[in-house]
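Aim 2 progress update. The chain analyzed this quarter is reproduced below.
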Amino acid sequence: MAKKDYKNSKLISFICVIGALVGVVFAILKIVNLDLESILYGFLGLVFSVVVLIQVLKPDDPIPYHWLLFIIFGILIAIFAGLPSLTGGLVAGIIVIIGGLVALIDVL
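Predicted structure tokens:
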């Protein structure tokens, strides 16, 4: 499903970009912590946040613009950028999940 197939694609993109940017910030804060576990979780959170940004800014080119992928990447951002210590990454994942749910409602 392409970006043009969603009626609320601008709202979906806005919500997911905000969530991904918050995820990038908290993943970088987690990497700066200099603990091996935090660096690993932070790097993975950063990767998933950048994937969501690429998914929104270049729809259907490298990664499909699909509601299911937003929900999956939102869960992964919440796990890796948020847990175990920073709750801001958890909020970032929830924001991306909300964008995926808006896209799901738009499809239905």
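Residues 32 and 86 are 12 Å apart (CA to CA). The radius of gyration is 13 Å. These observations will guide the mutagenesis experiments scheduled for the next reporting period.
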